Amino acid sequence: MWIPTEHEKYGVVLASFRGTVQHGLPLEIGDTVQILERCEGWYRGFILKNPNVKGIFPTNFIHLKSAHVKNKGQFETVLPVEDTVITEMTSTLRDWGAMWKQLYVKNEGDLFHRLWHVMNEILDLRRQVLVGHLTHDRMRDVKQHITARLDWGNEQLGLDLVPRREFSMVDPDEISVTELYRLMEHRHRKKDTPVPASTHHLFVHVKSLMSANIGEELEVYFHIYDGRENRPLSERFFVRLNKSGLPKSPEKTERQCTLFVDLGSSDLRKDVYIVVHIIRIGRMGAGEKKNVCSVQYRRPFGCAVVSIADLLTADSKDDHLLKVYACNTESEWFQIHENIIKKANSRYNLSGSNTGLAVALQLLHGDIEQLRREYMVLFTRGVSITRKLGFSDVIMPGEMRNDLYITLERGEFEKGGKSVARNVEITIYALDIDGQILKSQVAAGSGEPGADEYHSLVLYHNNSPRWAEQIKLPIPVDMFRGSHVRFEFRHCSTKDKGEKKLFGYSFVPLMQEDGRTLPDGIHELIIHKCEENASLADCSRYLKLPFSKANLPSNNQTLKGIKESFCITSFLCSTKLTQNGDMLDLLKWRAHPERINDSLSKLKEIDGSEIVKFLQDTLDTLFGILDESSQRYGLKVFDSLVHIINLLQDSKFQHFKPVMDTYIESHFAGALSYRDLIKVLKWYVDRIVDAEHQDHIQQVLKASEYIFKYIIQSRRLFSLATGGQHEEEFRVCIHELFMSIRFFLSQENKGISPVAQTQAVFLRTFPAVYGELLKIFTVREVAGFVRETLGSLPTTVQADCPLETVKLQCIAKTVEDQLYINPESRCLLLPVVLRLLQAHMQEQRDQVMCARILTSMLSLIKKEENGTAVSNEPVVSEEVQLIVESLLGVLLRTILEISNRPQPAGPSMRLQFQDVTGEFVACLLALLRQMSDRHYQQMLQGFSSKDDLRDFLLQIFTVFRILIRPEMFPKDWTVMRLVTNNVIITTVLYLSEALRKNFLNDKFDNKVWDSYFYLSVIFINQPCLQLESFSPSKRKKILEKYGDMRVMMGCEIFSMWQNLGEHKLNFIPAMIGPFLEVTLVPQPDLRNVMIPIFHDMMDWEQRRSGNFKQVESKLIDKLDNLMSEGKGDETYRELFNSIIPLFGPYPSLLKKIERETWRESGISLIATVTRLMERLLDYRDCMKLGEVDGKKIGCTVSLLNFYKTELNKEEMYIRYIHKLYDLHLKAQNYTEASYTLLLYDELLEWSDRPLREFLNYPMQSEWQRKEFLHLTIVQNFDRGKCWENGIILCRELADQYESFYDYRNLSKMRMMEASLYDKIMDQQRLEPEFFRVGFYGKKFPFFLRNKEFVCRGHDYERLEAFQQRMLNEFPHAIAMQHVNQPDQTIYQAEAQYLQIYAVTPIPESQDVLQRDGVPDNIKSFYKFNHIWRFRYDRPFHKGTKDKENEFKSLWVERTTLTLVQSLPGISRWFEVEKREVVEVSPLENAIEVIENKNLQLRTLITQCQNRQMQNINPLTMCLNGVIDAAVNGGLARYQEAFFVKDYILNHPEDGDKIGRLRELMFEQAHILEYGLAVHEKFVPQDMRPLHKKLVDQFHLMKSSLGIQEFPAYVRASPVHFTNGSPRTCRNSVPSIISPDGGRGVARRSYPAVNRYSSSSLSSQASNEVSNITGQSESSDEVFNMQPSPSTSSLSSNHSASPNVTSSAPSSARGSPQMAEKHKHSRENACLSPRERPVSAIFPNPLDPAQRAPPHQIGDATLPRSDPNLSAPDKVRPAPSSWSLDSVKVGSPYFSESVSKQLCPPVPPRPPYTVSAKNTSSQSPLPNSRSPQKTTVPPFTPSPTECQSSSLVSSSPVLSGSYSSGISSLSRCSVSEASGTELPTSDHPPPHPLAPPTTLPTSLSSGSDEPIRRENKTPPPYNVFMRDNPRRPVPLPHSLSIPPQTDPPALPPKPHQLRTGSMKLDGTSDPRVPRPRPLPRKVSQL
Fold first, then answer.
1. What is the DSSP-derived secondary structure letter of residue 665?
2. Contact of 1960 with 1449, CB cutoff 8 Å
3. Which of 760, 860, 1448, 1669 could lock onto 1537 through a cystine, CB 3.0 to 4.6 A?
């Protein structure tokens, strides 16, 4: 039986549990579980991170922990009873764990590893805390370390800042908002730089001296030296080194290490140095022999200097190697360090190149106690302390110090009868009063213990030595009196065994008779002569002698005349002894009562350090004088006391305040002093108003805190002594004193008058008095004093008066004082405080201080509320009411004022600005949170009029909107934001009632309601409330604490909306956008609430205007804005699924609409919005970071077209044009970028209409913007190598410039146009591949789903690469392995399927491609640009497959895809609009194969003839492949299949085709024969055997075909080649051709015979078909000789045997990968565009689009189709280029004169003055500017319809400027027209042919002559005519590409008129479906 658990509530999983039992709950090790029930070894419960899933688990898998249960029962919450730091650490590490893994996924390796180390560190620290063995201090340090690490990690991962107090997390509900803000701010500030320490210490560790020539012991002295003042700052640190240069006592670290303590910040500057002096101990001369002398001398060795400033930048862990310098002369030794600092190089040099002193130097910061904690090892190991000379910047009480420093400066000695100067050594002793030597009291420096004596340096042969040696005498205070120091002078002989001979002495007493010590400064001592062996043991003998020349009596001339002297400098640093006589006089006042006055007067002149030394004695003296003679000295004693009190305010002595406090508490005994002190103080206060000089009075008031302390303590002592006598009198005195104070405070003074300054001084110290008064008076009495005193201050706030700031400081200290905390006194003080505060806040002055005061007041109220009993509630409530009445309105205005103010520039000012705003906001929130129902009611009732209430509501709503702003708090302050939102929603719920009551119906106020709704919407949309974006644990915490505040606010919106009634119309359509934002929040409950509001809006809008136009327009605009902003961070796909139901099949909304009369329009609106929403969400989905460009572009195109076609939103349309343009530029799709920008360009006219500033365009005229767009588009066409399109735009711009006579720009434009022509001819262009892509399945975005597209590949991109790219773009997609159309199961699948194969473009511009002599550079453009249709061929066998001869049953399934727009266009891919499938019979297939092979042969022969090939191999391979295949049965297979009787009888309809096949075979043999002749001419010697073999095989082939002589029609075919290059006729004089230029050939019947020109097809096209039959030669060589850049992509099978069925491998490009058994080799071959025939080579005989419309037949100037004429008869062959050599070979068919007829005049460019009638636009409407094509394309009739006839010999079209026939790439390649043959005579006609002036009626179409004349080369895009009433302008062009349009992209040819051939009405053949054009334009931007 399951029993609810009582105590077993919380546990941690010890081992993973799979949960395989029934109802089992899977657990992972480390999970925390909450236990609900127990039953026989099993628990039932849930994992805390997923509370919705409950289950059972074994008890032994769980480690139980004690826990605290909140809300026992169904909704109980369990919290573990453990240290809060541990709880936080555990939850934080769990959150980090998931994010840490994501860092690895995102490849953020650095942060990944750093976080890993920190997590491990935190886990180690957690173990230490859990073990519980840490000391209290260590536990504190560990917790501090943990929280620092947690904060670091949270900051790095972008998590929330955690408010903490004492390392524990703070519950925001338990503290005031103001306190929460302070905690957050404190933690935020912690990230800033810490406050620099004011005290610094230098750590020195001596390692060694490195030198080659030491050999003697050394003494090293360190001290800190001030280079600016040239004096030492510290005493010396002394280290002894042995002969190796290492420390002498390595085991005693305190002898090698020291800390130079108490350096001030001013000491860390560049001219403060560490100076090192090194002394050697040994022989006099460094080079003397060792046995000369055994006496040791201290001799100079060297000096080193380093600047302290260098240590600030250096790495503290590095050792320093100091260079050691020696002085050139010993007499300079005393100042060697100064010379080094000054770089006086002549006076010193390096003591040795290898000499250096190794030391560790490190600067430490902070006070010494802090260092003891942080560097514990340093102090425990041992370190000596080296002090500053004198006291530190801060003197601490209790510090004991009594150091006398003596510096040996210089001496003057006589030679003493010697011939050379003396070597003088001084020995120093300290002797006590009895003449005994003081033991260990002479110290050379810290680091070594003191000695009994000290020996100075010996300077060699120097009678005026200067030593500059400092020694320290730490003589105890009690031994100072009577002690003296003796200096003995000895001469050190270097000869006589090194003896030291005494020759004189000096001495100096340490204290004078009056108790003063030896004064600081230089003392010139007298050298008393003595004998060598004189005894100085009896001091009394010489102590009576004078010691200093300064003390000699004037009559003692003998001693004065002595030249010998000795100078020392003394400096005393003592906390007990003084050198000041005035101080001693004051302390001994009883001995000299007459000096009291003087002593008191001189006290102010005594140095402060002397006073604080004797602070207690001085105070005792003053109060002793006051007690004994108060009348006489009262005022002076008071002034002296004030001086001492103010002295302690100095930062140097501030630490002595506790000394004075202790004195007052423990030692002060002046029980009667209070009367005198009160009296003098009142006397001063009464004189304030009248006094001229306020300085002294201000000093008195500055000391008032301590004066009151003395008064109160004195009164307490008196009361204790007398049992409380004179109490009333004392109270009266105090009351009178405060009356005087109130009087002087109440004086109003303007500006900075002296009295105002005095008032300010008093107010600064006044709050410090409260605590003292409370010692005697009650709380209410003191509160009364304070209230009356502060109340006496003038309330008028004066600008620029310092008193105002001080007033607020006084209030702030009052509010923070213990007095205010007491509720009893607070009720008295609060009104005064509020009155002063309100006055300041209204003036907007001193806002920082105002905020501080308010913060303190409100924090206190919260504490009172939390920590007090119920009895205190009324008090708290009353205080809140007072604050609300006084400050709420002012507070709102203040926040508004601050927020609207521009932020200051400086960083410090900006920080302060933000602090103020944050403080006031926290105060407002705290106040609102404290307000109860009663407070709100009273506040709302307090408004005197509706206008006041309205203003208040508007204010508070505006402030709330400000509080919601993201910038209000730092990004990671989520806790603060949630508290803010909680307060806002609570307040709004209170205020909405007032809104309903006061501003509805007849009192309706639109502005207030509007403000309310906007606030609600902004509130719901805040990022910090979007719980879906948070981690589960964070979401759970927020929901437990606050619930989902968005739903609460949504319900409130609904409730308020329902109350509006007919006033709802005021908010339609304005609120549609904001409410739509609310629906974008993925919260189902919220969406449910909002649906009725939308229905309501539609209903009211319908009632008002009868439609939803406004609603629809607003919805669409808002949707676009929200999506383009990428609103929110939610998962986009989730958003899609949750938003669509709102406008789609959402039952409640649709049901509501279906009940209405306007249901149809309502459902239509929903459908439109739904479609837009789908596209917008796809757009946003694609635009997110990391998406591929292809998706983004496709999505943008979809949306752009939707806005244009369905919504007619021009501004949106243009915006998306530019977004698409930017995407193309980023992807480097420059051609597509040009087409895109052209969409906008086409919306503009060449007019002067002004355009507003828009996007990145400035305000400018329409003409200027269009010019700018043209130039930009040309530039991009140039970058995209689409130069032909750029030329058209250049011409248009040039015509504009020409019409304005702007020749400068015209010249530039012509040059630009010329450069584009050059690029066409000189630069290579890559030929792109095209791929058909099908996107199947429901998981694709809407704009791709179940659609097929054709995509233009990137440069060099082949099928495999393209496939891989698509699979990368759609990583979840499955590649389909077949090319069949998928079925419905694939369409409806919840997956993504990709079907990809290559397709072949079908060029529209056949005319250029058919022309002879047009270079491939030019043709390449027309092959791959402006392509609407693409083809894909799939071979298959129909019926029984004949194994002997496959060709009998080999059919081809031909799929033709027509796109919605031509490629390239505004995208790299366009959707397929129409799909046509036809089957090509085996016979037709055979005809096409042979046609294409013939074409390939012609092309190669021509190229070989014109020497376009680098080698002849491609021709050799091609000839070999064809001849070899034919010999081995290639053509024979066709004969077997189609020429047998069975086939002819069974297929009588194929008679013509069989004839055609036979002719083609004969033609092929004829071409081969000629090809072999060309081959023989160019074949190299080593390939002659192969050539001979080919010739032999060719004869075999001819005999196998039964060919003895070629038929006439074959002989007449253009196998008779011209001898010139294809360029001959183009470059010649128009009507003249060279004698060998061209030969006309009579043709009989089949158009294909005359179809091929020498350069009409690229080798790509010619080679593609061969794979079908298996007779393919590799096209590698073919491509290698072409200028096409695509040569590298082909396979290389160089020959084909008769049995080969496919030359392409099984994985040929174009074929999706499939299993071998499912593939047919020919299918594989057909999938690749390069290995298949181009579409026009395989014309579709069944395509109705290829029939000629009747209105095109009558154009006599063009090779049009006529039902009665065959194509070759209409089209005159151009001069061919098929001759073996350039001059010799002629043709019998053409005479020279006939040849001349073949080169007609080239039409010039049309004049732009042609009427609109003659140059009508191709678009359906005259004003249309659609970028799409609208006219009928050229058509391609079936080959079966070709009939024999004669050629029209008089047509001017049949000139050399046109193609020699209709190319197989032309749409007219199998025209159904026929014509007449050319005469076969060898004689030319009598005159050249001229263009006919009249036409046969059968050819007329009724159109005007200029229109019938057309250039067959289609331009890159349409030329539209635009009427401009202002001036004639050239026809601008769009990039739509109808097949027949002017002008051509090719350069115009001279003398040939170029006129439009477009229909006036722009109509097209209804049988030919064309893409639907977009609407021209909506309006102009």
1. I
2. no
3. 1448
Residue 843 DSSP class: T
Instruction: Report yes or no: 1618 and 1799 within 8 Å, Cβ to Cβ.
Output: no
* pLDDT value of residue 581: 64
Q: Given the DSSP bridges, would you call strands 237-241 and 217-226 parallel, antiparallel or unpaired?
A: antiparallel
Report how far apart, in Å, the C-alpha atoms of 851 and of each of 185, 812, 845, 846 are: 14, 10, 11, 9
For residue range 57-67, what is the model confidence (pLDDT) as tens digits? 999 999 998 88
Q: What is the DSSP string of 1719-1752?
A: --HHHHHHT-GGGS--GGGS--TT-GGGSPPGGG
Distance (Å, whole) CA 1961 – CA 1751: 12
Token pair for 306: 């380093």
Predicted confidence band of residue 1586 (pLDDT cuts 50, 70, 90): very high
| Rounded Cα gap, residues 1219 and 1240, in angstroms | 12
Find where tokens 């504009």 sit.
1296
Q: 1435: which strand partners?
A: 1452
- The structure tokens listed for 705 are 């805190």
Q: How much is the pLDDT for 1126? A: 60
Residue type, 858: L
Report residue 41: phi and psi, to 5°: 80, 5
Asked if 1439 and 1428 count as a contact pair (C-beta separation under 8 A), the reply is no
Nearest to 794 by CA among 750, 843, 829: 750
Average pLDDT, rounded, for the chain: 75
C-beta of residue 951 within 8 angstroms of C-beta of residue 944: no
Q: How far apart are CA 182 and CA 200, in angstroms?
A: 31
Look at 735 and 1773; give whichever has higher pLDDT: 735
- Angle (CA) 896-899-901 rounded to 5° is 105
DSSP state of 675: H
Least confident of 484-493, 713-722, 1938-1947: 1938-1947
The pLDDT value recorded for residue 297 is: 87
| DSSP string for residues in 750-798 | -SS-HHHHHHHHHHHHTHHHHHHHTTTS-HHHHHHHHHHHHHTS--SPP
Task: Tell me how far apart the alpha carbons of residues 695 and 681 are, in angstroms, rounded to a whole number.
Answer: 15
What pLDDT sits at residue 1014?
92
The predicted pLDDT at position 590 comes to: 67
> What does each C-alpha distance from 1915 to 212, 1620, 1803, 1940 come to in angstroms?
94, 28, 15, 8
Comparing CA positions, the residue from 1536, 1666, 1524, 1669 lying closest to residue 1597 is 1524
Q: From CA 1603, how far away is CA 1613, in angstroms rounded?
A: 16
pLDDT tens, residue by residue, 1196-1211: 888 888 888 878 788 8
Contacts of 171 (CB under 8 A, 6+ apart): none
Average pLDDT over residues 884-898: 86
Whether the model clears a pTM of 0.70, i.e. scores above it, the answer is no
What is the spatial distance between Cα 1653 and Cα 537, in angstroms, rounded to a whole number?
A: 137
The whole-number pLDDT of residue 1981 equals 38
Q: How far is CA 530 from the centre of its chain?
A: 87
Q: Among candidates 53, 118, 69, 70, which has minimal Cα distance to 92?
A: 118
Mean pLDDT of 1722-1741: 37
Q: Where are the beta strands (DSSP E) in 1203-1297?
A: 1250-1251, 1260-1261
In whole angstroms, give the CA distance from residue 1758 to residue 1776: 20
| pLDDT the model gives residue 516 | 80
Mean pLDDT of 50-56: 89
Q: Phi/psi at 1755 (nearest 5 deg)?
A: -85, 105
Q: What angle do CA 1686, 1691, 1697 make, to 5 degrees?
A: 135
Q: From the CB of residue 1168, how many other CB atoms can be counted at a distance below 10 Å?
A: 18
**Rounded Cα distance, 498 and 491, in Å:** 10
Query: What is the 3-state composition of the chain as percent helix, strand, coil, each rounded to the nearest 5?
Result: 45, 15, 40
